[in-house]
Amino acid sequence: MITDLRTMTDGATLDADICIIGAGAAGIAIAREFVSSTLNVIMLESGGYRRESKVQDLYSGPSVGEKYYKGLDECRSRYFGGSTNCWGAIFTPLSKIDFEKRSWVPWSGWPVRYEEFRPWMRLANDEYGAGPYFYDSKAWGEAAIPEPIFDPECFRPIAWHYNSRGETLSYGKRFRQQLRQAANIHILLHANATELLTNESGKSVESVRVSTLEGKVSWIRAKIFILACGGIENPRLLLCSTRTHRRGLGNDRDLVGRFFNEHLHMPCALLIGPESAGGGYSHLVKMRGTYCLAGLELSTAAQAAHRSLNGAISVDPFLASESALLAFQKIRIDLKERKLRPAMISDLWRICCEGNKLFPEAWRRIVHGDRPQGDPGRFIILARGEQAPNPESRVTLSSERDQLGMPRASLDFRTTPIDRESIRLMAKFARLEFKRLGLGQVVEAPWAEDGSWPSALVEGPHHMGTTRMSDDPSTGVVDRNCRVHGLNGLYIAGSSVFPTGGHANPTLAILALAMRLAAHVREVLLKSSKNADWRHNLQTTELQAAAKSAAAVSGLTEPVP
Fold this sequence. Notes:
By secondary structure, this protein is an alpha/beta fold. The chain has helices at about 25-35, 55, 115-125, 135-140, 170-175, 175-180, 235-240, 300-305, 325-335, 345-355, 355-370, 415-435, 445-450, 505-525, 540-555; strands at about 1-5, 15-20, 40-45, 90, 155-160, 185-190, 190-200, 205-210, 215-225, 265-270, 285, 290-300, 310-315, 380-385, 395-400, 405-410, 440-445, 490. The chain is built from 15 helices and 18 strands. Strands 1, 2, 3, 6, 7, 8, 9 and 18 form an eight-stranded mixed beta sheet that branches.
């Protein structure tokens, strides 16, 4: 069932077993795990089914650190489906080294081992349609991508999958009907969570205050609350919940909002050569119902030897900054976001003047599922770098307040020397390896050679780390099961719990964590049954769901009894 909170009676109180705050990739994935369950689920979504300027403005806030690539209200979508409404549906898994404690990377290491988490990534990959779980040299072989012998001390082959199986990319559109028809799931639209409230002891979260922009207030009571609002809004809501915790929920150690990190996407070099050389790797290649893009990951050996972070490079089309294709992309985004810009007129004029270039590119994209070709003799080497955990890079609360009366989020984004040196290392290795293999001439970006730094990021945005995971409350906000330290009934989903982010687009790991968290919450609620011998009191549907998860993760083909 889906209800608009604006149509409900003011002051209403609703009860559920589970309350999910946020209807993006993580929230929807968790809700889907409980479809047809005996557990009742309420999911809160701040917006409706499409972008609304007043709702989107709730994301606005100051950026006070290093120049961030976009405004805080521009890099997220505050309506049903969350950022899947504006993403590229690119999948790749985290690497093994991302989970390890690295002596040269302070604060590194996950409490969950890679061997434990990898089956969940495979399960999420199968469930959400990103092709076979081939993300290394197997992908290159399956997609018939030529594989020169790159020096294993420099790079190893990897791949990104572009989810192009014909389904709509927005999870809000793709799964709306399934969730609407689920009798045990109630989705509330235009429902803004403004404060989490605990019991008198302050040790258990019992309810959440929910408001509409029109002033209506409701309360949701539940046994379990799951924050799934993203890497900026998760800490914001915790910090705003000060009625029983002066510094905000889960913030006894002043860790909520710290360790904000991004993926540093930026051109680091120019590749000059024929399309048959290095440029051949800029195309998307069909692979079992999806599209695959070849890439090169900085090898584990190189990371250790050079005390570097994880990172990868891809070969991207070179597009002139004033091209008709970029003009078309700008207009498409403006229409989607319902914005009018004075520059739209000049963009339309450029499209008309350069239609002979735009339409062939559009044909390639629509018919062949490929990327734009761009300049056939020049290509961009795009770096996709990890950031080291940095407690001074953080989300805090601003003195400004939004229409709901909540303090706005303030971002103090910072990079460190190791972030920069890791990208320079990839540019250097690309130059040496592409020259050695005859794949074209690589000209490093001026900033990669002279020790400076580009003025802003490109692409992303992947907000990570602000409620990081650690079994030690002194170094993290949540434990290995994503429960907030010191609080019963409060969990956090999404990339805000990542201790480190690697270079991989985060969605596959977000979905894997969501499915893993749903399985854990199911078990917690079933164990809390009043009947002490709870295993004999389970409903059949819950037994089947638990068995299905266990079988899938362990690799069994038959459900466990």
